[in-house]
Amino acid sequence: MRIKRMVAAAVAVLAMGCLVTPTAATATAYCGIHWGSTDKAGTGLPLPYAGPLVNVRAGHHDCFDRLVIDSAGPGAVHRVRYVPAVPDQAKGDTLALRGEAYLDVVIRTSVYDLAAGAATYTPADPNELVTVPGWRTLRQVAWGGSFEGYTTIGVGVRARLPFRVFTLPGPGTGSRLVIDIAHQW
């Protein structure tokens, strides 16, 4: 009889547990970030050539590190995605990047002013386009080459983290391709 009571009590406790609906764990977004880490692509002008690249720079913010690519034109077709290795356009090799994840940034722009026939961007150090030591997310920004109107920049990242990509107008008739990479999920 005692065993029957113990079994009945255990069944009652289990049944009560089934009647209580567990609350779903709600993930609080880090700094309100809901960007994800999938491929991002977009267009400015749907032209084969939308202005030459003139500068690459970076900044760090409370919630993300930012890479900015300045163009002399009003915008450019772009694709940014995580890849196992970033290809070097000129050699076909892969870029040696620091970090545990790699962003392949491809922009439909050149590093020459076609009208003037002059270079608009020549990296002083192709392996370190911008200085990012000690940053929370960025580990390295390297030159992947420019060929036939396509420019590649490799970004070494601490881990595969959420990122967003957008274009801002200016300064002047130029534009800025902005890539924000979150510090964490």
Which structural category fits the helices and strands? mainly beta
Number of domains: 1
Cα radius of gyration in angstroms:
24 Å
Give the neighbour order of strands across the main sheet: 1-4-5-9-8
Sketch the major β-sheet: 5 strands, antiparallel
How much helicity do the residues have? under 10%
| Topology pattern, helix = H, strand = E | HEEEEEEEEEEE
Question: If you average the pLDDT, what whole number results?
Answer: 83
The level 1 CATH classification is: Mainly Beta
Distance between the termini: 55 Å
What name does the CATH topology carry?
Immunoglobulin-like
Number of helices: 1
How many strands appear in the DSSP assignment? 11
The CATH architecture comes to Sandwich
In terms of DSSP E residues, the strand content is 35-45%
Low-confidence stretches: 6-26, 44-48
- What sort of overall outline do the alpha carbons produce when their principal axes are compared? globular
Textual characterization of the structure:
The protein has a single domain (35-182), classed as Sandwich (Immunoglobulin-like). The chain is built from one helix and eleven strands, in the order H-E-E-E-E-E-E-E-E-E-E-E. A hairpin with a 4-residue loop joins strand 6 (112-113) and strand 7 (118-119). Strands 1-4-5-9-8 form a five-stranded antiparallel sheet, with no helix packed on it. The termini are far apart. The radius of gyration is 24 Å and the shape is globular. The chain has 185 residues and is mainly β. The chain is 10% helix and 37% strand. The longest helix is centred in the first third of the chain and has 18 residues, at 2-19.
